[in-house]
Design goal:
There is one protein chain. By secondary structure, this protein is of the alpha+beta class. 22% of the residues lie in helices and 37% in strands. Strands 3-4-5-7-6-8 form a 6-stranded mixed barrel. The protein is globular, with a radius of gyration of 16 Å.
């Protein structure tokens, strides 16, 4: 039997050193099985990978951090349209809690995004997760999944032998918050104008 999960909404400035250490460990263990490179950003007690979130929704149970999702308000550019969004990222759920997952954390995050008065929540995901996210979010009306879009981002660090930007073919997850999905701008390239969350 699983212990109950309590959800905490926390602004980045409210996190203590102990929180960063616990989250860093959580991300290394959660992302590590998907590849050593995916866990690498979370070394040295770092609890973010690219851009640092503005706020986080963290689920805790008797064993510690159970789930996490971060948000950062930013302007993205789609074609000629500058659009305010709350970018969602740093999603993770402890492997022993399959089924708790993204639906619950999104339901906790949704009213937070409404209080922030953003028109849309925005995130990117790998194509391999399309069926999973469609089942958990799109069919429940929480989000729309858009394919055929490339997202241009800056790298979180500068390297002499790498371009400072990268372009990825990913799925775009859009949560209509303050405006209907019909007002999401059309376009095949999104400029994040910063590193991925």
């Amino acid at each position: 039997m699983r212990s109950p999960v309590r959800w905490r909404v926390v602004w980045e400035n409210e996190l203590r050193l102990a929180d960063h250490i616990e989250l860093s460990d959580f991300f290394r263990k959660t992302y590590g099985p998907t590849g050593e490179f995916n866990a690498k950003p979370f070394g040295d007690y770092r609890s973010w990978a690219g851009a640092r979130p503005e706020l986080r929704v963290i689920g805790y149970d008797a064993r510690g951090v159970a789930a996490h999702i971060g948000a950062l308000r930013r302007f993205i550019k789609i074609g000629d349209v500058d659009l305010l969004v709350a970018e969602l990222g740093l999603y993770g759920v402890r492997p022993d809690l399959e089924g708790l997952g993204i639906t619950h954390s999104m339901r906790v995050m949704y009213p937070v995004l409404q209080k922030l008065a953003v028109p849309f929540g925005f995130g990117t995901v790998r194509h391999a997760l399309k069926e999973h996210l469609t089942r958990l979010l799109a069919r429940r009306g929480l989000a729309t999944i858009i394919s055929g879009v490339r997202v241009r981002s800056t790298l979180p660090d500068v390297y002499l032998k790498l371009s400072p930007t990268r372009v990825e073919d990913v799925l775009v997850l859009v949560l209509p918050i303050g405006r209907p999905i019909s007002e999401w701008p059309a376009g095949t390239v999104i400029d994040r104008n910063g590193p991925e969350l």
